[in-house]
Amino acid sequence: MARIEWVKQRLFNWALWKEREGRNGLGFYSQSAFLRIAVDCGGERNALFSTVDEIEAMKTDEAVHSLLGPKPHLARTIELIYLKGESIRRTAETMCKAESTIKANLDHADHAIAAYLREKEEVRERAAATK
């Protein structure tokens, strides 16, 4: 099994959102969107000011939390890698597992999150179709 790129990106964005949540309480920006616009309209912006889709981050947060009951080891792996910024090696040491196990946990977590998000989207589509 291999990592799912779009899930990896969502997890990265979710981690940025969670970091902001820790700083100002909600996960939302602490300043106006107009103040985040780069003055020179070019070049790289600081990661603090990178755009995070709030709704996507909340859905990803829900998906990660869905792992806590049935697969807490996957949730713990995601927490250490994405929220704590640990390396695979350090995560393996913390969890007393082999590095290959941590990589497999990330693969499994990607697939579990993707399945959860697909299922939720199908439920939303069915609900919208019945209206």
Give an account of the 3D structure.
The protein has 131 residues and is mainly alpha-helical. It has one domain (5-129). Helix content is 64%, strand content 0%. It has helices at 5-24, 54-66, 72-83, 88-95, 99-129. The longest helix is centred in the C-terminal third of the chain and has 31 residues, at 99-129.
SSE run: HHHHH
- What portion of residues belong to β-strands? under 5%
Query: Helix tally?
Result: 5
Number of strands: 0
Output the radius of gyration.
17 Å
Report the principal-axis shape: globular
Question: What is the end-to-end distance?
Answer: 39 Å
- Overall average residue pLDDT: 84
Helix content: 55-70%
Count the domains. Answer: 1
List low-pLDDT spans: 27-49
Sketch the major β-sheet: none
**Secondary structure category:** mainly alpha
Secondary structure topology:
Blueprint lengths: L4 H20 L29 H13 L5 H12 L4 H8 L3 H31 L2
Helix pairs in contact: 1-2, 2-5, 3-5, 4-5
